[in-house]
Amino acid sequence: MLKIGCHLSSSKGFLAMAGMAEEIHGNTFQFFTRNPRGAKAKAVDILDVKAFLARAKELGIGPIVAHAPYTLNACGAETRVREFALETMADDLERMELIPGNYYNFHPGSHVGQGAEKGIQLIADALNTVLKPEQRTTVLLETMAGKGSEVGRNFEELREILDRVELSDHMGVCLDTCHVWDGGYDIAGHLDEVLTEFDRVVGLKRLKAVHLNDSQNPLGARKDRHARIGEGCIGADALARVVTHPALSHLPFELETPNELPGYAREIAFFRGLFREE
Ligand code: FE
Ligand code: FE
Ligand code: ZN
Questions:
Q1: pLDDT digits over 12-21, tens only?
Q2: Stretch 195-221: mean pLDDT
Q3: pTM of the model
Q4: What is the Cβ-side half-sphere exposure of residue 272, based on CA atoms within 13 angstroms?
Q5: CA-CA distance, 194 to 205, in Å (whole number)?
Q6: Confidence band (pLDDT; 50, 70, 90) for 277?
Q7: By the 8 A CB rule, do 126 and 82 touch?
Q8: Gap from CA of 176 to ligand 3 centroid (Å)
Q9: Residue at 277 is within a domain
């Protein structure tokens, strides 16, 4: 069965997110581990987590994707920026052990003028510091649009990071459809070729989740502005081919489109409908 959901607010806790997912017929979801602007994470409510685990099992929800704050930069130029990234990731991964078997997605970072090579090394160094052999969470590198000095703007940069991580069994990739499109990969016109390229460079077995977004901008724009499904330059038909592609259809799909719950419910219904007609 198609695994699809959307980004949800975590402000009311895990059980509330399971309820929201159920309401919109989602069977997975994504959430920020803390306020995206950074700062302290709230204390974990163990009762909420326990209730969530039971409810998620009943509803068939999961795996789910935790998203690190997008301000986190493991390859910043300043020591204190990199330290914040390390502390945040280590703390998030420790909390993730309460909901084992799920994903922790992060933006590799921005090298801020240090160069991609230096950025890649700093990101790998950070991962080599925070990953633990016994952890049960898979950490995902998100494919980036390549705006500014973002690292992860092509498949080669992701491969470079993975190659330098010692515990790379705990690593995977999350493909963001808006980001790869903005990065110049034509998933609308040449999906098979893009996936062949991904397989050649990174390996499809590394692909663990998809961020399902349309893009406000044309192919290769390097902008990263998400659009609702069918309201952007990728288009609903192309995104339908992504979701139904045999190499991808088993993955969890997370919508990050500019929507409230009713809009997400409509998009989820659209993608579920593709499978019912077959
Ligand atoms: Fe992201
Ligand atoms: Fe994304
Ligand atoms: Zn984005």
A1: 999 999 999 9
A2: 98
A3: 0.97
A4: 14
A5: 15
A6: low
A7: yes
A8: 7
A9: no
Ligand 2 mean position, distance from CA 176 (Å): 5
Distance 278 CA to ligand 1 centre (A): 32
Residue 114 CA to residue 120 CA, distance in Å, equals 10
Statement: residue 36 has pLDDT above 80: no
Domain that holds residue 104: 3-272
Number of domains making up the chain:
1
Class of residue 101 by CB neighbours under 10 A (exposed 0-12, middle 13-18, buried 19+): exposed
Specify whether the CB–CB gap between 33 and 41 falls below 8 A: yes
Which residues have their alpha-adjacent CB atom under 5 A from ion ligand 1? 142
Centroid of ligand 3 to alpha carbon of 224 (angstroms): 5
CATH of the domain at 35: 3.20.20.150
3-state SS string for the chain: CCEEEEEECCCCCHHHHHHHHHHCCCCEEEEECCCCCCCCCCCCCHHHHHHHHHHHHHHCCCCCEEECCCCCCCCCCCHHHHHHHHHHHHHHHHHHCCCCCCEEEECCEECCCCCHHHHHHHHHHHHHHHCCCCCCCEEEEECCCCCCCEECCCHHHHHHHHHHCCCHHHEEEEEEHHHHHHCCCCCCCCHHHHHHHHHHHCCHHHEEEEEECEECCCCCCCCCCEECCCCCCCCHHHHHHHHHCCCCCCCEEEECCCCCHHHHHHHHHHHHHHHHCC
Tell me which residue of 246, 164, 265 sits closest to 207, measured CA to CA. Answer: 246
Residue 278 lies in a domain: no
